[in-house]
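Protocol step 4 of 6.
Sequence for BBS7 protein (Helopsaltes ochotensis) entered exactly as in the expression construct, tag removed. Do not edit the line below.
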Amino acid sequence: MEPCLARVDYLQVGVTAQKTMRLLPASGKKATQKVVVGDQDGVITCFGIKKGEAVPVFKTLPGRKISRLELGGALNTPQEKIFVAIGAEVRGFTKRGKQFLSFETNLTESIKAMCISGADLFLCASYIYNHYCDCKDQHYFLSGDKINDVLCLPVDKVKCITPVLACQDRVLRVLQGSDLLYEVELPGPPTVLALSNGNGGDSGEEIVYGTSDGKLGLTQITGTKAIPRWEIGNEKKRGGILCIDSFDILGDGVKELLVGRDDGMIEIYNFESADDPVLRHDYVESIASIQGGCVGKDGYDEIVAATYSGWLTGLTTEPVHREGGSGEELKLSQEMQSKISSLRNELEQLQIKVLQERDKYQQSSQSSTAVSSVPAFSVNDKFTLNKDDASYSLILEVQTAIDNVLVQSDVPLDLLDVDKNSAVVSFSSCDSEPNSNFLLATYRCQANTTRLELKVRSIEGQYGTLQAYVTPRIQPKTCQVLQYQIKPLSLHQRTHSIDEDRPMNTLMLKGQFSFAEIHSWVVFCLPEVPEKTPAGECITFYFQNTFLGTQLESTYRKGEGYFKSDNISTISILKDVLSKEATKRKINLNISYDVNEESVRHTLQLIHPKLEYQQLLAKKVHLIDALRELQVHEGNVDFLLPKYRSILEEADQLLEEYKRQPAHLERLYGMITDLFIDKFKFKGTNVKTKVPLLLEILDGCDKDGLIAFFDA
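Step 5 output, structure tokens:
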């Protein structure tokens, strides 16, 4: 059964962070619920809905930005006390808006995640977890990577305090006191945790997680180990998950799972629908918070969502077009008319206010004591590597409409097509020599575009900076510059383990460097490595190349580092970059390596199927125009061979795929050429003069001939 939900916009506050909106419990059997939200202007707004209008209950004064908002109270009583995290401080308010708590924690950083259970308060900064009971420090834990969210299993069911941390390195860390009980490996970096069914299920041990690459899963956290229950992949390439709630919106007595994503998608999953949601609703901007309840009208349940730019909207089960006699229609139209006239008055007042403020600004800017004021605006940005197509997604979201975005890079990058992108792109020719400009492109956005998604693909071994200049439609014109590092091994992604049976090449470094220094070099070379130096004396990280599927193992400690990979080009890039970084710091490195001849053949076998596929695709695309001309002249194509007929039938898909992957074939040619040069570089031979011969063999697409050429 698909629910029929209508969208209602209630109110707009300032820009909101993840998990900063909650519904207060209803005070009576038939009462509607109040909404409480905290924004980045530091304002807490609590309101209810009467006759379709938002009626404020209380509103606090602006201050520092609110990073989290949770409800609390004594165990087994209605959770109606409001707690907010502001910087390193936690404040408590009653449902009427009276402040009863101001707790300055001993954290040196701002609070990123918060959970409340009775008198227990669980707080996380970037890497630090703290547990307080009645505002007294109880436990402390230092995580190996950034903490994105924290959750505590229900104490009344589990009978002990079990906090769970969602960490950026694709791991859930389950704690007991100040100690790590065990780790749970996940398919992606978890961004949000929620109790299954809102209460942890029958056992109280079930938690639902959402990842930044859009996967959803449920795992049972027992006292000794985790039991994975189910997992839903992200086949449709939706956005990352920011918020999760459980609520019975279908009215069938079973709670559904409500999911909000950063591409503006709200999804409802029930247990019959398995992997596919029962309903999807597309907003234009990312969903920061989501909760089910009864807000607009008594008796009609709805899903309330808070978007990044501060809109509080409902998806309600209340029918918009009421059925009934003419009297009810008349009543509705009168209600509508009064609403429309009040909106018109409000609009007129706003227009007058804007004109007054504009005159005021013009006068002050022309006076002798004029100071130029640049309007501040916040940008929500995300730069992540996609495993599926080995490309980087750059998502830019602004609280007002975007006018244009200029993208500039000092390293060669391919801009890929994005289906959802309606902006007009224009390229400028660049001088790569004096300014080291390799990419200059401008995206001109259509009116009311607040979110823009770009895709780029980098070349491993070429590293530098990608810059985005974001200009919104506000006066006076102002622009924000955002910078993103393209790392030497930019297409590598962290993984939990690697295949030990592959033929591996090894690079060994020894020298007078500290653990922190070699860690900083690894951070410079590879994505997804925590910037903070890990605890302990030695660390191992595993990576996989998203483009080729080759792997890398890096183990290092003070004074020595070992890097193993089945791709000799990866080892060559690491050798060049690490020796350059050490030279900058005047550190003498002793570099040795062990090259496995078999690994080159192994890498060629990984590349060859991709090469064959891309060459075949290119050939088919080149034939399309000629075949279409034949079709026009001859009227029918029955005389053609079946393989040519199938090219004509699939022409649109082939062209679409070819357009989506520009320069894919050139990239593969480049990788094979690098592999050839690197193989002989380690033997001390320069083979650059043989490259034209290699390219001829590649055009022939003969796998055995290629391997024989490498062996020669």
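Step 6, annotate. DSSP finds ten helices and 43 strands in the chain.
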